[in-house]
Amino acid sequence: MNKENCFIGEYRYSVDDKGRTMFPAHYRCDTGSPYVLTKGMDRCLYLFDDRVWTSIIERFYGDLIPVSSDNRAFVRILFSGAATVELDKIGRISIPQHLREYASLDKEVVFAGALTHLEIWDVHIWDTYRSKAEKVFEQNIGALQAR
């Protein structure tokens, strides 16, 4: 992965009554390829571009029948909750109802860069999470500098 393919930054948008929200212009693919949206950790959504989603499939495809219960649970949640989303003519995506409910998305969302993907959070949940995470970041920044 190179820095041009990294998802970074924080973008805030409103969500309309149909579950549509703007998609950060910086990350819109020129190819028109769809994105994959699925359940993420900490009650957010993960949004992958085609390149990363393909690598996830390739990683799990080799293990056609996940043996461990943890692997089965991971595969089931990640893939059963997934939906292909495409940009409309004005650069919006439509977030399916089941994913909006999972992430408690209401009127305003945050797209947060997470290196290999974007995360979509309800703005209030994100602000609470980020506040706690910043304290952990500050406590551990010394360890990162020592690397």
Automatic annotation (TrEMBL):
<feature type="domain" description="SpoVT-AbrB">
    <location>
        <begin position="82"/>
        <end position="125"/>
    </location>
</feature>
<dbReference type="InterPro" id="IPR007159">
    <property type="entry name" value="SpoVT-AbrB_dom"/>
</dbReference>
<feature type="domain" description="SpoVT-AbrB">
    <location>
        <begin position="10"/>
        <end position="52"/>
    </location>
</feature>
<comment type="similarity">
    <text>Belongs to the MraZ family.</text>
</comment>
<dbReference type="GO" id="GO:0003700">
    <property type="term" value="F:DNA-binding transcription factor activity"/>
</dbReference>
<dbReference type="GO" id="GO:0009295">
    <property type="term" value="C:nucleoid"/>
</dbReference>
<protein>
    <recommendedName>
        <fullName>Transcriptional regulator MraZ</fullName>
    </recommendedName>
</protein>
<keyword id="KW-0238">DNA-binding</keyword>
<keyword id="KW-0963">Cytoplasm</keyword>
<dbReference type="GO" id="GO:0000976">
    <property type="term" value="F:transcription cis-regulatory region binding"/>
</dbReference>
<dbReference type="GO" id="GO:2000143">
    <property type="term" value="P:negative regulation of DNA-templated transcription initiation"/>
</dbReference>
<dbReference type="InterPro" id="IPR035642">
    <property type="entry name" value="MraZ_N"/>
</dbReference>
<dbReference type="InterPro" id="IPR035644">
    <property type="entry name" value="MraZ_C"/>
</dbReference>
<keyword id="KW-0677">Repeat</keyword>
<keyword id="KW-0804">Transcription</keyword>
<dbReference type="Pfam" id="PF02381">
    <property type="entry name" value="MraZ"/>
</dbReference>
<dbReference type="InterPro" id="IPR020603">
    <property type="entry name" value="MraZ_dom"/>
</dbReference>
<dbReference type="InterPro" id="IPR003444">
    <property type="entry name" value="MraZ"/>
</dbReference>
<dbReference type="InterPro" id="IPR038619">
    <property type="entry name" value="MraZ_sf"/>
</dbReference>
<keyword id="KW-0805">Transcription regulation</keyword>
<dbReference type="InterPro" id="IPR037914">
    <property type="entry name" value="SpoVT-AbrB_sf"/>
</dbReference>
<comment type="subunit">
    <text>Forms oligomers.</text>
</comment>
<dbReference type="GO" id="GO:0005737">
    <property type="term" value="C:cytoplasm"/>
</dbReference>
